[in-house]
Every structure is written in structure tokens, then in C-alpha cells.
Write a structure and sequence with these properties.
With 426 residues, the protein is mainly α. 50% of the residues lie in helices and 10% in strands. It has helices spanning 37-47, 51-69, 82-85, 88-104, 112-132, 152-162, 170-181, 189-198, 202-214, 218-221, 266-277, 281-292, 312-329, 345-354, 370-380, 385-402, 418-425; strands at residues 3-13, 18-29, 32-35, 247-253, 259-265.
Length: 426
């Protein structure tokens, strides 16, 4: 079996005349490490806008290529030529192979859904080959690459191969267990307070509060400016802004380099000014100048206590550290809480407000409200209305069941104060 690994690279693209960053796939072949050109071209073209996405794509292609290298048919094929010889059969066999390993371990992960979605990612790679006119034996128009894990013959085959004796339907048993373990989670108000107090640097607590109020992703938050330009030129420190509006429109460059307009409540901008811009930013901007030999650009707002621009990975690392402190201070603090959970509060409260609190527990709440769904999709940057609506309906019901009898009729799209809502629903 050939060894495959992935690594992040950063370089200046002559074609784009800009710096780019993405993962690449390398293979250990005949005593040498080689770059696997075709997958790396794909990663450059399709994943350079997000390093996390690039890592996921590269990881799955590496896993699939590692699986191919164990096949007798690929023993004499160089890794750089795998794309020429792969067929729909290998894609299907890879899914079955992953299920066999999972069932042998009696593990609930990866679920059948995850295995299918991972195979889709690899299929998109081959679709890109077809679109680019690069030869491959994978037939995109044929569904023969899909492993049907609901098929009785396949279930019996898996049970026989793995000697799984607990049930003749091992895949469904494990999938059911996985669904039971996947608890609906919404960070509690008390946990928010504990986490905010545990952050080693005030900038991360400020970012968390801002995420609660805007539902922005970490990668979007770190790009929020001290002073906006273009369509966002009205974004200024709050003491310089018009105090009359209850909310402001803000254009976000989000996931996949897609633009969307979101709502930022005025109270969130005031909180940002009072908690960070007025008290922390001046000293940090000075440190930035000393560190980099130039004034801090107006496009950068969030700086660490050392004057370095905050990044997405810094937020994750600081939150993991803060979680350990939070658990030490309060053993009941949920270990599964992550920074991203702040993003769930805005759409959850919108859902509660629209259904007037406790009414969300009624059956008719399951009928999707188009206008509400569109508002939430715009704010979140989602594309699937049904999935978006159902997900936050579940979270809102979870919240109301935990706080039955409490309603909050003053939450509105243009003045949604998440921090007041936390006090009410904590």
C-alpha cells in the first residue's frame, strides 16, 4: 500500500497575482515523495478560498487513493495516473470497505450518511476532471458509484464479511445508535458566562458576544473592519455612527467567497465599542504598528493582546483553552461546547419569536414559513431552506421545552437582542 499524506502550502500565484493557500496531496512512491499533480490542481482550483475546506477535500482524496493503492489492479499504476484508471466500481467499493471497518469495530462512526457524503466529495473531484476535459473512467451520469446500504443483499454481505452476530442488519443498528447519541445541543446561558470569563484574552470574549448577536462564522468575524468601505462604508466605531437605526445592513464575504447582506443590531455595535474598541483597540493597534512597522489597516479590527490580527484558528485554540479553564471552574460546563455554538443563538431566537414562544411546540410549527426561512438563510449564509428551517425548529423546541411557559414577544428581526434573550431563556 502506498503512503499518502496532505500538507498545507502557501505561495504567490502568478495567474491570480495574489497569495494563495491550500492543501496538497503527496505520495511516498519508490522511495521518493512526489506531488500528485491532478488532485493538487483540483485543490488549487476548488478549495483555495477556505483552508478548512481544502483540508477536508485533500483528506478524503488521500483516503480514497490509499484505498486504491491496496488493489491489485493499481499495483503497477503510478499515483499520478490513478484518475485515469478509477471507475464507478472503486468508488462504491470504497464505501463498502469503510462500512466493513466500522461494523468490525462496532462503531457508530462514520455513519452511512457520512460515508455517502464523503464519497460525494470525491465524486465532485472526478466531475471536475470531466468538466476540464481531463480523461477519467468515472461515469458521472451513472449512479453505479453509490453503495445502497439499505439493500438487503448488501446488508447480508456486510454481516457475513464482518461476522456481526448482534443483528442481521448491522449498518442500520449502528446508524440508529449514532442518531441516539447525536444530542441536540444549545449552549446554556450559564455556560456562556463561564466561557466568557475564562477566555485568556478579552478579544475572544468580544468575538463570542458579537457572534451571538450576528450569527457570523469565525472566518467572517475576523474580517469585520474597524472602519468599512464600499458598500460597508457606514460601518464605523459606534460613537461615530447614527444612533437612530435599530439595525444596520452589512455585506459579508462568506464561505466560498460568496457575498450576502446580513443584519447587525445597533446594540451589538455599541457593545463592540464599549467592550473593545474604546478600551482595548488603541493599545493593540499601537502594538500592531511596532510589530509590523506600519499602521494597522482600517480593514482590521480584532487584534490579540500582542497586536497580531486574530485568525480563525486562534479563535478555536483560545476557545479550547478557555473550555479547560471553564470545566476546572465549573465541572458541569459542557465539554462539547464550541465557539461555533454562538452562531446558533440568532436563528434559534428568530424561530422562537416568530412562533410566539411556546406555540413552537405545536404541530403546525412544522409547516415551513418562507419569509422567516429566507431571513435566517440570509443571515446564516445557508442554501437549503428545508434543512435550515428544520434544524433551527428543533433547536427552538429544545429551548422552549427547557423553559416551558416563558415567552419573549419583543424580539424582532431589526432589533433582536440576543443578550437579553439569553437572560430570558438561560
Amino acid at each position: 500500500m502506498i503512503s499518502f499524506e496532505i500538507k498545507p502550502i502557501k505561495y504567490h500565484s502568478i495567474m491570480l497575482e495574489a497569495g494563495v493557500e491550500h492543501y496538497v496531496l503527496l505520495a511516498e512512491y519508490k522511495g521518493k515523495k512526489i506531488l500528485v499533480s491532478i488532485p493538487n490542481l483540483y485543490l488549487y482550483n476548488k478549495s483555495r478560498s477556505s483552508l478548512q475546506t481544502s483540508k477536508r477535500y485533500a483528506t478524503l482524496i488521500a483516503q480514497f487513493y490509499r484505498f486504491l493503492s491496496s488493489h491489485e489492479r493499481f499495483k503497477s499504476v503510478e499515483p499520478g495516473d490513478y484518475h485515469l484508471h478509477v471507475t464507478n466500481t472503486e468508488l462504491r467499493q470504497w464505501q463498502i470497505y469503510r462500512q466493513l471497518i466500522r461494523v468490525n469495530k462496532a462503531s457508530t462512526h462514520p455513519t452511512s450518511e457520512t460515508i455517502y457524503n464523503d464519497a460525494c466529495v470525491v465524486l465532485y473531484f472526478f466531475r471536475w476532471l470531466v468538466d476540464e476535459g481531463i480523461p477519467t473512467s468515472v461515469k458521472i451520469s451513472m449512479k453505479t458509484w453509490t453503495a445502497n446500504f439499505k439493500d438487503r443483499r448488501l446488508l447480508n454481505y456486510v454481516a457475513k464479511k464482518t461476522k456481526y452476530t448482534v443483528d442481521t442488519d448491522p449498518i442500520r443498528v449502528l446508524d440508529k445508535q449514532a442518531r441516539q447519541k447525536k444530542a441536540v445541543h444549545l449552549i446554556k446561558h450559564s455556560e456562556v458566562k463561564t466561557l466568557l470569563a475564562a477566555y485568556p484574552d478579552k478579544v475572544y470574549a468580544t468575538l463570542f458576544k458579537f457572534a451571538l448577536a450576528t450569527a457570523m462564522r469565525p472566518i467572517e468575524l475576523v474580517k469585520f473592519p474597524y472602519m468599512g468601505n464600499g458598500k460597508n462604508r457606514h460601518i464605523l466605531p459606534y460613537n461615530e455612527m447614527d444612533r437612530e437605526p435599530k439595525s444596520f445592513s452589512y455585506e459579508v464575504l462568506g464561505k466560498g467567497n460568496k457575498l450576502r447582506d446580513i443584519i447587525i443590531p445597533s446594540y451589538a455595535l455599541q457593545l463592540l465599542y464599549d467592550d473593545y474598541i474604546k478600551t482595548e483597540y488603541p493599545a493593540r493597534a499601537k502594538l500592531y504598528s511596532e510589530r509590523y512597522g506600519k499602521r494597522c489597516p482600517l480593514s482590521i479590527l480584532f487584534l490579540t493582546s500582542e497586536g497580531a490580527p486574530v485568525t480563525q484558528s486562534m479563535i478555536a485554540n483560545a476557545t479550547n483553552y478557555a473550555k479547560r479553564l471553564a470545566i476546572a471552574n465549573d465541572p458541569s460546563f459542557g465539554i462539547k461546547n464550541i465557539f461555533y455554538h454562538a452562531r446558533k443563538w440568532w436563528p434559534t431566537m428568530m424561530m422562537v419569536q416568530h412562533h410566539n414562544g411556546e406555540k413552537i411546540l405545536e404541530k403546525n410549527a412544522e409547516v415551513m414559513h418562507i419569509a422567516l426561512t429566507q431571513v435566517i438563510m440570509n443571515q446564516m449564509g445557508h442554501e437549503d431552506p428545508i434543512t435550515t428551517y428544520n434544524h433551527y425548529l428543533v433547536l427552538a423546541r429544545y429551548l422552549m421545552m427547557a423553559n416551558k411557559g416563558i415567552t419573549h414577544e419583543t424580539i424582532h428581526e431589526d432589533a433582536l437582542n440576543i443578550h437579553e434573550a439569553l437572560e430570558m431563556y438561560g
